[in-house]
Description:
Layout: H1 2-11, E1 29-32, E2 35-37, H2 43-48, H3 54-75, E3 80-83, H4 87-104, E4 125-130, H5 145-153, E5 159-163, E6 169-173, H6 179-184, H7 189-213, H8 227-268, H9 270-283, H10 288-295, H11 301-314, H12 320-332, H13 338-355, H14 363-372, H15 378-385, H16 394-404, E7 415-417, E8 439-445, H17 450-462, E9 468-473, H18 479-492
Parallel strand pairs: 2-9, 3-4, 4-8, 8-9
Antiparallel strand pairs: 1-2, 3-7, 5-6
Helix pairs in contact: 3-4, 5-8, 7-8, 9-11, 11-13, 13-18, 16-17
Amino acid sequence: xxxxxxxxxxxxxxxxxxxxxxxxxxxxxxxxxxxxxxxxxxxxxxxxxxxxxxxxxxxxxxxxxxxxxxxxxxxxxxxxxxxxxxxxxxxxxxxxxxxxxxxxxxxxxxxxxxxxxxxxxxxxxxxxxxxxxxxxxxxxxxxxxxxxxxxxxxxxxxxxxxxxxxxxxxxxxxxxxxxxxxxxxxxxxxxxxxxxxxxxxxxxxxxxxxxxxxxxxxxxxxxxxxxxxxxxxxxxxxxxxxxxxxxxxxxxxxxxxxxxxxxxxxxxxxxxxxxxxxxxxxxxxxxxxxxxxxxxxxxxxxxxxxxxxxxxxxxxxxxxxxxxxxxxxxxxxxxxxxxxxxxxxxxxxxxxxxxxxxxxxxxxxxxxxxxxxxxxxxxxxxxxxxxxxxxxxxxxxxxxxxxxxxxxxxxxxxxxxxxxxxxxxxxxxxxxxxxxxxxxxxxxxxxxxxxxxxxxxxxxxxxxxxxxxxxxxxxxxxxxxxxxxxxxxxxxxxxxxxxxxxxx
Length: 504
């Protein structure tokens, strides 16, 4: 980019007009006030590829650290870093810690204490996680408005296209400039439909009120006595027209989006998928007949594959006969089972770690141990966290604990790094670095989603006083996009059914 910029200046003979060039640290995309992406494509595949060499892994980690450094430079904060031990999260934490230390040694560094993020002098906590910390959230169907629009209608960089009410396609922006999107993104879809109807009725009432105020004297002869009053009404009406027009445009936009969603929901029984998957994760499985009913019922190939993987993750132990039954049902619907086989392989690694020793481990266990250490067990451990009474995501529970700073066995083993502390001192012994924190930056390595983003914003808003949580990821993925990456890994490992059509 710098090279192209320089050539452009030379060719246009305007180089003498440049006074100074700044590096703006822009290796990230801001999607919302509290949401960003590094747009690192297929990061989960790259980090989990069993054939990836150390140099390739190091390069990916380097790219992630560069992106995070840009985010922190923009916010002008040096956070305390926390993450589970082992795997990509620890690798990113260690390199980022070193990068920040090196930069802080410079005379004119980018960071000033209590920068743009904080309202106080307290530093934020940066919580790093790897996608395998909680796999199910990246796959499951969700029935809330923002995740549903992203997953079903393909929201990309805050833009989507849906069929218009008069034919053709309508393109819409969904960002902070849209008050309805900001206010209702976390509601379940039926609640959103009610809210659209409510706002439409309010709009009609307000229009009727304007018409009545400016309707004159009902046909009676005008004698001039109401001139001042009528003029005032007309002025008010004129002033309210732009606001009314804008409201109507927002209502029409979300009516079109909701209509498109409703069509997909009915066609694919997405409400049933969302409810049944949630039940599975909370209860730890479902009845065999109910399982088969879903796999042989409505839904796309990707819907059925995602459902089968959630069942696999949520069930503590599954008889081989049941696994074969699921695979047969998927093949009957011409679904490639590579992603299912891959998750089954990861899940079996829990057992492998329990019995493996350095002399007898297979290549796949060597690979997993090198990349994840003991944290591989988190693939299923994350589900157990859902069994609490509040059904919070494991990620949200961990972030809440890290922000509270109270002793908690779930996060006690987490790595703690302070880039501002001398290298020789032990950060873990400094109790003030363990919180409580008013601000957090949460980053998911291997792909994030709107479900986690929404859950973390709810966490921040229910705190008293309200806290501030920023969520970022290597990329923002729909459930369908994520299982495509799982399928690639399954195929690289020689798993799955050959010849079946890929999920779509």
